[in-house]
Amino acid sequence: MASPYIELEVGERTVKVTNPDKVYFPGIGATKRDLVEYYVAVGDGALRALKDRPTNLKRHPDGVQTEAIYQKRMPPKHPEWLQTVTVTFPSGRKADSLRVTEVAAIAYCANLGTIDFHPWQVRAADVEHPDELRIDIDPHPDTPFGNARRTAFLAREVLSDAGLEGFVKTSGNRGVHIAVRIEPRWDFVEVRHAGIALARAIEAKDPELVTTAWWKEERGERVFIDYNQNARDRTVVSAYSIRAKPEAPVSTPLTWEELEDADPRDFDIRTVPARFARLGDVHAAIDDHAYSLDTLLEWYEKDDRGDMPYPPNYPKMPGEPKRVQPSKARE
Predict the structure, then answer these.
(1) How does DSSP classify residue 60?
(2) 183: nearest Cα among 126, 100, 255
(3) Whole-angstrom distance between the N-terminal and C-terminal Cα of the chain?
(4) How far apart are CA 46 and CA 253, in angstroms?
(5) pTM of structure
(6) How far apart (Å, rounded) are the C-alpha atoms in residues 212 and 320?
(7) Which residues lie below 8 Å from residue 246, measured CB to CB, with a gap of 6+?
(8) Where do the DSSP E strands lie in 209-300?
(9) C-alpha triplet 159, 163, 165: angle, nearest 5°
(10) Count of beta carbons in the 10 Å neighbourhood of residue 148
(11) Contact predicate 128/65, CB 8 Å
(12) Maximum CA pair distance of the chain?
């Protein structure tokens, strides 16, 4: 027997939603139809965050209570109008990833069970030079959101010192993300170095609150600035992306004024569409100006500590320190 389905008109496309009544988010009873209709409702904002970017998909075809499928390659069988872009992984292997060009592409992937969208920090026109610097503020699980908030405002101060403007959003979990639009003239290594310089400057403002320590055993309960999110093939969840949790929280763009008293639990699949209809995309201006990384790279060059460890799945990089956790290095 054929699966039940509905059809949604999304721009110029008709997107089929199969098994629309399947519960995807048991914490609030939200269905697969709710998932797809959510992405259509916030489509302009979601598209702004994903437009022309290679995008990884985190799929839960049977809802968030099941194991995720992490998909970096688009399957060969897909609609002709759905576009792809070729990317190169740290291993040197290549793949054709989703290239989001219209809201219908987001809706189509949501019907495949995609809950989280994870875009690269590059655009299809130039996949070797990022146009976004990312600050991933990751607090300890046992600490309040206020720690992440305080760190975000420290980051804003450092960005101002470097002549940069950042756009802030909730992570959809316990953290905060800040995006800075940059000129696409530095490679992944250089952008990562800029991210390290920025993270170190934030840490210097309050080392009891913030850390850049890659090894968890050195962090304690401090907030971690994950500088490696600027490396090749590392992604953060996109603006307006739902997170794969029973209550369907959303990674929600905020103004800096809103962050002062924001509670990330207020932003979910039910509340964000109404917010979007009322306010529009509060990050609509992010593409108005692209900034230079010259100041951050000058900070990096002046810092005699040099590079920091890459994630374990990366090949050994030039100038990288020994990739071993400190307790084992002492043995």
Answers:
(1) -
(2) 126
(3) 62
(4) 10
(5) 0.96
(6) 15
(7) 25, 26, 27, 28, 64, 65
(8) 210-211, 223-225
(9) 55
(10) 23
(11) no
(12) 67
